[in-house]
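Run: sequence + magnesium ion -> complex structure.
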Amino acid sequence: MHPPGADTVLVRHGEIGTKSEQVRRKMESQLRDNIAAILSERGMADSVSVERTRLYVETAAERIEAVTEAVTDAFGVVSASPAVEVAPTMDAMTDALAAAAENHYDGGTFAIEARRAGQPEVHPFSSHDIQEQGGATVWETAEREGVDPEVDLDDPDLTFFVECRSDRAFIFLEKRTGPGGLPVGTQQPVVALLSGGIDSPVAAWEMMRRGCPVYPLYVDLGEYGGPDHRARAEATVDKLARYAPNQDLHLRVAPGGDAIDRIVAETDDRRMLVLRRFMLRVAEHIADETNAVGLVTGEAIGQKSSQTSANMRVTSVATEYPVHRPLLSVDKTDITERARAIGTFDEATIPTGCDRIAPELPATAASPHEVAAVEPDNIDRLAERAAKSVTVLTPADPPTSD
Ligand code: ATP
Ligand code: MG
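>> structure
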């Protein structure tokens, strides 16, 4: 919802504001670049500017909604408001409030929330004055339009926001929520293990939300995987790329078939742990090559036998890189909800290849030592070979059916 003529999106960030001046400037400029990249990818080359504690996108009234939507996809954005800019005078602000009331106030309760920035002598009125005169204007407009006005300052149905700065003022009607977090690109990159399932894309998204670029890696499970899984992983990456089009988000596909065949042939109840450790080793090589500083999985405590608290110790020690598990304590229903919200959920769930590899009675409390003892002796070499044979998919690559 926006007032008539809205042509500016006000963008608010959160944690960035708690940083030192130097860090804040860097993060704000990354946020500005990221918003510009999302806008340009969606065909809107509007200019994004940074002012202390705020960013602004100046756009055209006809695409104000699309721009607001795009802005609230940028990591680091806490909220955004489609606003109309007017002169910082009482007359201009009350005129804009009257127009907003005419268009959007059709019953229920309302409130005016006004903020005034700058030295007191800059404006001949206080924020309280704006609220009083603005409230009277909305009230009169409503009555003229045949609406029965009612004020509720605590929990209004509609809030008219006014922000009056020294050089300009803004009127808006909502604060649309963004993902929060930090601008992607303000942290060092990580390798995200993507299975094509529900959890791993959400985990990758959460790391991006905290500022980390991700290099997504899919380990092809050979005869246990298949084109469906890989296509699902590819589709997921496309969805993630919408949030960060200026990042190198290309799926890396590592052929794991040979290693998986050996793992299935040579292991039994500890098979899934051997498999996870193999995948982490492949990811480690990719991290070495790309200068990534950590690995990410969609694991959550107790979700599967390989994800018991004991078994995560076994998998974690297979690599020197930290294994980040942003969904560690999140319930599956909540993960699924998040996947829907960010657009990576696919109704047609397909069982992942891992389900077909799992033994009937997998170990739930193994030790690193036990698992290391049953691993194929050349597992490191197999992982290295799989990593060396990685294919990096570019968006131009047609869908594969091998
Ligand atoms: P997801 O966790 O993505 O929904 P899932 O739950 O079926 O899929 P799990 O068996 O829970 O997969 O796997 C645990 C984690 O291991 C995944 O979240 C993912 O990070 C990683 N993983 C599993 N299979 C693959 C694969 N084929 N390629 C890359 N990573 C994988
Ligand atoms: Mg899972």
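>> summary
The chain is about 40% helix and 15% strand. The domain at 190-392 is CATH 3.40.50.620 (Rossmann fold).
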